[in-house]
# Entry
Amino acid sequence: NSESPPQKMSNLEKAGILNKTKICDNGKKVRKNWGLSWTVLHGGILTFHKDPKSNPTGAASKTNQFVPEFTVDLRGAMIGWAAKEKSSKKNVLELKSRAGAEFLVQYDTESIINDWHKVITDTIRQLDVE
Ligand code: I3S
# Structure
């Protein structure tokens, strides 16, 4: 269709701060460790960066927040609102990768989490038709 934008992937990019925890690795449950992450969506890959507070020296490092902690390939992934039992927090999204990793992603401001929900959903759909 000649009406479609020439660079579809360009609206499927986003970056910002989110509260996140891994809950499952390779299909195996892991202990929650909530922390704020600089989160980047680019090229169908979601990257959570390290929480500056996680620096083993205890000192907040200015560079640590740019160190990738987890990457999630959104091809074949699933995203949705998490069931109440999953967390006592509000506005919690559950993200499951095809590789068997599961994350909870959360932010108190509804509009912010809604924007992430939309862009991740759209990215998963786009990767599905490629
Ligand atoms: O699902 P859970 O186990 O109730 O999750 C809570 C715990 O991980 C808790 O830490 P420890 O029990 O490991 O000390 C966290 O501090 C809470 O934030 C977790 O629950 P929420 O409801 O915040 O996701």
The two ends are 16 Å apart (CA to CA). The CA atoms of residues 91 and 108 lie 6 Å apart. The chain has a mean pLDDT of 88.
